[in-house]
Amino acid sequence: MDFQLSEEEEAFRKEVVSFLDEHLPEGTERTPEFQAKWTKAIRERRWVGFSWPQEVGGGGGGIMEQVILKDEMAKRKAPALGSCFMGLAWVGPSIIQYGTEEQKQKYIPDILDGKYQWCTGYSEPDSGSDLASLKCKCERDGDEYVVNGQKIWTSIAMWSKMMILLVRTETEVESKHDGITCLLVEMDTPGIEVRPIKNMSGGAMFAEVFFDNVRVPVENRLGDEGQGWQVTISALASERSSIAEVHGLIRKIEEVKELARNTIRGGRAMSEDPGIRRRIAQAETKIEAMRLNGMRFLTKQLKGEPLGSETSINKLHRADLEIGLGELALEILGSSSTLMGGDDAVDGGAWAKYSLNWPEVVIGGGTPNIQRNIIAERILGLPKD
Amino acid sequence: MNFGFTEEQELLRAEVRKFLDQNAPLERVREIVEAEGGPGTDPALWARMAELGWVGLNMPEAHGGVGLDLETLLVVLEETGRSLFPSPLISTVLAAKAIERFGSEEQQARWIPGLADGSKVGTFAFMERSDTLGAEGVETLAKPDGDELILSGEKRYVTDAAAADLSVVAVRSGSDAQSLSLVVVEKGTAGATAVDYDAMDLTKRIGSLTLEDARVGTDCVLGEQGAAWPAIQWLLDLGAALVTAEAVGAAEAALEITTEFAKERVQFDEQIGKFQGVKHPLADIYVDVESFRSLVYYAIWALDQDADDARVAVSRAKAYCADAFPQAGIMGVQLHGGVGYTWEYDIQLYLKRAKWVRPMFGDADHHYERVALLGDL
What we know:
The complex is a heterodimer.
Chain A: H1 7-23, H2 32-44, H3 63-75, H4 85-98, H5 101-113, E1 117-121, E2 137-141, E3 144-155, E4 160-168, E5 180-186, E6 192-196, E7 206-217, E8 221-222, H6 228-240, H7 245-262, E9 264-265, E10 268-269, H8 274-302, H9 312-333, H10 350-354, H11 359-362, H12 368-379
Parallel strand pairs in A: 1-4
Antiparallel strand pairs in A: 2-3, 3-7, 4-5, 5-8, 6-7, 9-10
Helix pairs in contact in A: 1-3, 4-5, 4-6, 7-8, 7-9, 8-9, 9-12
Chain B: H1 7-23, H2 26-34, H3 43-51, H4 70-82, H5 89-102, H6 105-116, E1 122-125, E2 141-145, E3 148-159, E4 166-172, E5 180-186, E6 192-196, E7 206-217, E8 221-222, H7 229-264, E9 266-267, E10 270-271, H8 276-305, H9 310-336, H10 347-357, H11 364-374
Parallel strand pairs in B: 1-4
Antiparallel strand pairs in B: 2-3, 3-7, 4-5, 5-8, 6-7, 9-10
């Protein structure tokens, strides 16, 4: 085992640090001017799409360098690399892998520049975790596909210009994984209606999307007709392997510690309460386990071995932590924990809101019980239910 | 970065695995530990392991060891854990490490060769009646008398207490909170009596060492007299890490045994492993074992490197393991149904090992509190 960086890696780390010193001085305010300058600088460095091939405008960087880059940026609380979240996380990689030359030229630069958002039209009202059972109808009519049906739980559909959409082009199939096709759809195409779903925290992140005779040019198909499932699987795999989420949790646990130090109840700081101390230490330990699990997965990748279902381990930990940290914060706060506003609401009720927002990450990408099935069946070899 | 083992280490793992499968399957382990009045170990097997270099694996070459790091020992421990192999390996390594790291060249030459070649068993004796891991828990007195020390007190929960030919003992040499010393007490010293207790986990011997005006020469003191607290803390950390490393193999075996059972056992016309009520807890055990595996691998590496975060890394690993391993054992027995509770089935052996692991060198409460302290809480 060796956790030290090699000489080249250390040199790269120093390059990142000096870049951050120059472009992100201590106490930088996140003004629009700063954001614009920052975006320009990281694009010039080709740090957005860091690991993508250089031919498509990516950085051509290695996995290890990417980890170093993300680590150093997280330490400095630097703004994210790029602003098109889903485009960078899996739409871009899918287009790079399965797209035509035209599609790459048309979409990749915009994703890198963060010109607009992408959303993901996967789930349907009756498909739930059984994604492959989707029914959204799609028939070919000359040079166009005609889509009819409905999607649900589509994150940020109301703020997106494009959607990566899964539809059924064939119904008579041997396996439900066949006959699915992937389309790249402009959200302002006539016949698309987006209805935001108000969630339990009062906001809306998800939407329902309705398709009524929506015409999509055949050239917007990603991959072959009927190949949609493979396109999706490789996209979801890159979602599951993303180890960057640990940085967000590290920030969150630091905030919880700060909250425990600052919250005085019964004349003492909650950070002195043994039960609270233990639970904070437990959460911190779990986050560290996630970080180290991620490094073990990374080692496999560096050796050229494919990542399998083991990444579900960290998905389960994350689900636990996202829910648990919210609950822990509320317990620290005590009676004021239920307030969403007013003078007594700590941070304007931010913790109350946080504690209601976990479904976005816990259910998206497969519920915890689905992850447990994946581990039990694919790793432990237990029979399918 | 490489978070994995080298080819040599994997070869060693295969060798140890093969050796234990051939010589110490669980039926043999049961024979060894259930033998009335027996030593609780197999001296012939222990001698062969020593010959193969596994006992002295990370003891210094100059004194008969192989000179490899803790990380390589970790490979051996995972396998001895998987087999629940009953041997004084961890206690002997702890004694040797104490002498190597804190003793003089002369002391190393006097004691390490016997430990490395397996002819002597060592142990580290810290705990007392207060049952805490703090310096204040050490009450055993070391009274100077010329070039001798007179020791009096009682050490408890000492692994392999009766088998140990030499015990590295934490003693109080002054009234200052932390004025502690480490002394080597050899078997046969007048006034030193070791006995083993009846214990739940028959594969781990545990006992006490009573010192009644036992005299040892000042040349038996490791390092500077009265200044051993940092050394003791390091040994407690090492102990916690080694116990956790062995627990990785044991917990993994418990998971394997239960998973196999779930595939074979048919109820309601189905293999029970088909039911989510069975497969989900097994998946959770897998998540836990893999997680404390990552934590202890890193902790061992950090100890090898004397890294700044070694202490917190050890605490995280031991804390996670001390909760998760017993849970895995309990769930394993439960998923077996009634037979899991029988003496005949093996899963209960792993549950007992888990219960041994829990308090050894600090339970989850102790280590989570240390994580909190070291994390500025």
